[in-house]
Amino acid sequence: MELTLKHKFVILSYDPVKGHNLASNYIGYGIAGAILLELAGLKKINIEDNRIRLLDSHKTGDKLLDEAIGYLSKASKPLRVKALISKIQAKTGRFKKPIVQELVDARYLRVVRKRFLIFPYNRYPSANPSYRKDLVEYIRRLVLRKEGSENDIVMLTGLAGACRFAPKFFRTKEEKKKARIRIKEIVKDSQIDKAIDETIQAIQAAVLISITTTAAVSAST
């Protein structure tokens, strides 16, 4: 199986040993961002001025990308980036489940069944830890050593940073501090496509709103 950006993002978002989701409630935003960037890479969309313009409505053969194209084709005018991200995030389970299953089938993740009282749940530790370790190392080199890297690593770095689990890839306080600054620079200075900067900004804004809303609700109870 050829791994797409969304597959790689999901691999990174699970703890390789314990199998819990490092992105917490924000994994849906990251998957949405990966879908948008994949569509931009396929020249299906153009992202400019925070709006998504559909360039080609033909199906890709990827069900999740095609569902996103469906949202765009039904809109009466070009959707804002944050609007499509919110639509996909609202259906996180629907989008995440097939990605995880494909990764389990391809032996990049494995299923560990757990139970809390009477409630069953799954953990997804790595079934191919060397692959995930390589992805993390590429991100570390890009961030800490400013080494050149392939486009997917730049995008994964931005997505992980926006979804607030990139610090897990760095060991010391000094590394984490440097990473916070460098990741912003990497996304802003990316020469790949303006779509990266606008997508990451939209995810960051959505995550911040989610955090603020949760805090406000907690404070009022």
Q: What can you tell me about this protein's structure?
A:
With 221 residues, the chain is mainly alpha-helical. It has a single domain, classed as yeast vps74-n-term truncation variant fold (Orthogonal Bundle), CATH 1.10.3630. Helices cover 59% and strands 9% of the residues. The protein has helices at 5-13, 27-41, 63-74, 81-89, 92-105, 129-144, 151-162, 173-189, 194-220; strands at 45-48, 51-54, 79-80, 112-116, 119-123. The strands form 2 sheets. The protein has a 3-stranded antiparallel β-sheet with strand order 1-2-3. It has a two-stranded antiparallel ribbon with strand order 4-5. It is globular.
* Rg calculated over all Cα atoms: 17 Å
Second-tier CATH architecture: Orthogonal Bundle
In whole angstroms, how far apart are the ends?
47 Å
Number of domains: 1
Remind me, CATH topology?
yeast vps74-n-term truncation variant fold
Low-confidence runs of at least 5 consecutive residues: 215-221
pLDDT average, as an integer? Answer: 90
What is the H level of CATH, i.e. the homologous superfamily? yeast vps74-n-term truncation variant domain like
State the shape: globular
SSE run: HHEEHEHHEEHHHH
Figure out the total of helices: 9
CATH C-level category: Mainly Alpha
- Spatial strand sequence of the major β-sheet: 1-2-3
Structural class designation: mainly alpha
Task: Tell me how many strands there are.
Answer: 5
